[in-house]
Amino acid sequence: MAARSSPWAAAGAPLLEARALTMRYTTRDGRVTTALADVSLAVASGEFVALVGPSGCGKTTLLSILAGLQRPSVGTVLLRGDAHARRLGRVGYMPQRDLLLPWRTALGNAVAGLQAQRVPRAERLRRARALFRTFGLSEFEGAYPPQLSGGMRQRVAFARTVLAAPDLLLLDEPFGALDALTRAGLQRWLAEIWGRLGTTCLLVTHDIDEALVLADRVYVLTARPGRIQLERHVPLERPRRLEQLARPEVAALKAELLAALVDEAAADAATTRQGGPR
To answer: 7-89+170-175+202-274 domain in CATH 3.40.50.300?
Structure first.
């Protein structure tokens, strides 16, 4: 099913837009693999968008392209309507692992991006300490990564991402490795922080509940090669609570999204058993 036109994108030029992105790789044995096929999406300024899809569908590849870390085989990425705008260093990208440097303190890890941008030391420390107060991390400024819980490490990694590029954040399953209780707490925390910062987020997740709790809109990718299968608006006001997922209209949306993912996973498994390419 083709993605519907987004009312946010239609209202004006999106902050970030992908147009007909296709990504192909050539393997060592000379075979061509298509990771993404004709992917188009848009994220408006101040919006929170989630991207869900089965494993191996190209979600991380798509984020890497949007962040400017890879170039697509075909297609265009626009930042504030400009197809030639430099994205690398201007778009915050938080990978699946926190990648904190063990020899740096929490504060030292958070300012790493600003340091790479050659922001003066006093200024980067001022910004980081102000954000640590917002994030509830002030008492952990001098702690080293092994001394922090998984949830605290993710907060530090998120602070590093926000400090480096506060306007647009690409989040690649940031809570995927955490236990359910910690993950639920960080989802609430992220929703609150996003509201305070007024930033724009594109979140990749396998968790439909996470997408519904956090996002204004949800895109669903097909199995490889990843294509946009669905685009849906989340009909919930903010602030949100987990119990709102029991509302009939939200439960119906969750069932639709889950059915799309299950169907794609089943189709991918059948293709794999038959030895055919996706």
So the answer is: yes
